[in-house]
Amino acid sequence: MTRTPRMDRPEHTEGQVARTIEQQTAKLPSDLFLWAAGASIVGSLLLHFSGKEHQSLFVGQWAPTFLILGLYNKLVKVAGSDPVKIGQ
Predict the structure, then answer these.
(1) How far apart are CA 70 and CA 25, in angstroms?
(2) What whole-number distance in Å separates Cα of residue 53 and Cα of residue 33?
(3) For position 82, what pLDDT does the model report?
(4) pTM of the model
């Protein structure tokens, strides 16, 4: 089975906004998101042990978000954005 290149299928290409976001996020170091997730977990624990359970849950729920953003960052760095034809 042959695979059609993405450039031949314009309905499956990224828009200008996504391309710009990918270019900017690729500049960030990948471990930044890991540190942010760790800080969220530590902050959540500190808030929990200080008796602020509601705030603790809010801060703790950011950890998976940071990890997913880190995964997105790594995918953009490894796979890149959609190829752009010259003249588009």
Answers:
(1) 9
(2) 24
(3) 62
(4) 0.67
